[in-house]
Write a structure and sequence with these properties.
Elements (H helix, E strand, L loop, with lengths): L2 H28 L10 E5 L9 H10 L14 H9 L4 E8 L5 E7 L2 E6 L4 E5 L4 E3 L9 E5 L3 H16 L2 H4 L2 E8 L2 E6 L6 E5 L4 H14 L1 H4 L6 E3 L7 E2 L1
Parallel strand pairs: 1-3, 4-7, 7-8, 10-11
Antiparallel strand pairs: 2-3, 4-5, 5-6, 8-9, 9-10, 11-12
């Protein structure tokens, strides 16, 4: 047999072997047990006391993206793609997707946490703990600071949300301040809790800590003097003064 013929037969043998191997792999894949099909999908919320979105809503989101895993073979699942889709929901902060030894898909979810609610004549939304705009939803029932009036996104995501963040750690004022009303972008009024309480004219919110220290000193030292007087406003815009009207 010539050398050329020998080479031809070697090539034929290699191609035949590869074909048989490929067929065996394909047959083995087709004959894999059906238990490797994903039997279920479970969502787990990091904070179970809060639930801003439903499981059916997330299911619909995955189906729309053709990424719903139930019934699919485990080798065809793209857990990172599922993570991306769930994370794209405006109420989700973080999502982690993985499979269990029984081929079930689980998604651990951390929701965005509201820090402040904004209500203007034309829109309503939350600012979250990352200081970014979070859509308003009826399901969100957290007790957060409410800001109304002439509120722009720039002030809402900077000065005002920093005030809301500070307020969470200040028990004295957290129990007394119900909301903030912006008469103008540079003229804030604090609405105190309780019937008949005066409004507190803040002016700019840039120096709120100093102004509220002054107001607390006034409250601590003027309780008796204020009895029987019905102030409509307490103006703390001016250094060293609290003006009652």
């Amino acid at each position: 047999m010539s050398r050329t013929a020998n080479i031809i037969w070697q090539v034929i043998g290699i191609v035949t072997a590869l074909g048989l191997l490929g067929g065996a792999v394909a047959w083995g894949y087709a004959m894999r047990p059906s238990k490797e099909v994903c039997p279920g999908l479970t969502y787990r919320w990091e904070d179970s006391s809060r639930r801003y979105l439903s499981e059916s809503e997330l299911d619909s989101l995955l189906r729309k993206a053709e990424a719903y895993p139930v019934g699919k073979h485990i080798d065809l699942l793209a857990v990172y793609h599922i993570e991306e889709i769930v994370r794209s929901h405006p109420m989700v902060d973080r999502a982690e997707c993985y499979t269990t030894p029984k081929y079930e898909v689980r998604v651990d979810i951390r929701q965005r946490v509201p820090l402040m609610e904004v209500r203007t004549p034309i829109e309503r939304y939350f600012i979250d703990t990352r200081h970014t705009v979070m859509p308003w939803r009826e399901e969100v029932r957290d007790d957060v600071l409410v800001v109304t009036g002439a509120v722009g996104p720039q002030a809402a995501t900077t000065t005002l949300v920093r005030f809301a963040e500070w307020l969470q750690d200040e028990e004295y004022w957290r129990e007394r301040i119900a909301s903030v009303h912006m008469r103008t972008p540079q003229n804030a009024v604090l609405v105190l809790r309780g019937e008949g309480q005066p409004q507190v004219v803040m002016g700019s919110m840039n120096d709120y800590k100093r102004k509220l220290r002054k107001l607390r000193t006034f409250f601590d030292n003027s309780e008796e003097a204020m009895q029987g007087k019905h102030y409509r406003e307490l103006d703390i815009r001016f250094r060293g003064q609290v003006i009652g009207r």
